[in-house]
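Second attempt. The first submission of Helix-turn-helix domain-containing protein had a stray character pasted in from the spreadsheet, which I only caught after the job came back as garbage. Lesson logged: always re-copy from the clean sequence file. Corrected sequence (191 aa) follows.
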Amino acid sequence: MEMENVIIGKKLKTLRTDAGLTLQEAAEAIGGSIAHLSLVENGRSGISLSKLQRLLTRYGKTMADLVEDSDLSDSRVVTLSTAKHLGFFGEGVEALLLAKDVQNKAMEPSYFRVEPGATVGPMQHVAGEECLFVLDGRMKITLEDPKSGETSEYNLESGATIYYDSTLIHTVTNTGNKPLTFYGCCTPAAF
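This time the job returned cleanly.
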């Protein structure tokens, strides 16, 4: 995992400098410190999925921009063993991108493995829709309307699906005692 931190850190630094931002401006965008962001960019620390998403949004990029490479051979098929890691950043969450070249696609499919008690989020996209399908385990998903503050919670188990507007602030928590695995797909590709 340390090598992934180094690779992701280098890419994040390149994205930040391409966006014309200083470490301080980028750290402020995620509510973090300059020291921590520097450690992340140098591959010596991980970053939470929610902070990474905010950082990429500030850079005008998506998670796919961070992990995509130029190998588009047989771009129609991706297996879990060949999927690109979206992150496993010390918070008990592993996320895999289940498509290649998503910048040029309408949907962004992902696979998540979440340890007991771990959380994905809170996340929010500017536009779009999302669908989650629980493969194994139990989750609580919290959806919050950022305008009204109204919150809804849903408890889902294996085989359940939830569909929602991506502009809602959404948080997934593994409420079970074993790893939670689920499939998610959002449109447009934004994660």
